[in-house]
């Protein structure tokens, strides 16, 4: 199992969500996050200067079986990419175990319904 975390633009979240659902990834969490990027500049809006070094993003967190890692990453890449600086990052880390609280099932089976095997 792997945990895929993608930090994406807020404006691309709906596209990423739809791409994940189309790829068969039906369960994930997301969070509003703030970060600091390379670009440090102030923007002027109606005469007020705003510091844009603190960037609002969405963190999408997904745990998938090994066989679903690449299709999940590709779905996020296709949907989140604008080609401009600030598109975000994807991180992939190993997951040691997962447990479905309702049934106590452990491992891969806790990530999906066995009767809906792909």
TrEMBL record:
SUPFAM superfamilies: GlnB-like. SMART domains: P-II. Pfam families: P-II. It comes from the Bacteria. Belongs to the P(II) protein family. This is P-II family nitrogen regulator. It comes from Phocaeicola faecium.
């Amino acid at each position: 199992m792997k945990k895929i975390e993608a930090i994406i633009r807020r404006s691309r979240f709906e596209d990423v969500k739809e791409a994940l659902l189309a790829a068969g990834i039906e369960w994930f969490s997301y969070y509003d996050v703030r970060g600091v990027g390379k670009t440090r500049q102030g923007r002027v809006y109606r005469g007020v200067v705003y510091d844009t070094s603190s960037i609002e993003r969405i963190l999408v967190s997904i745990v998938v079986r090994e066989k679903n890692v690449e299709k999940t990453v590709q779905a996020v890449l296709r949907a989140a990419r604008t080609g401009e600086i600030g598109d975000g990052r994807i991180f992939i880390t190993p997951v040691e175990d997962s447990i479905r609280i309702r049934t106590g099932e452990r491992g891969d089976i806790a990530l999906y319904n066995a009767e809906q095997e792909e």
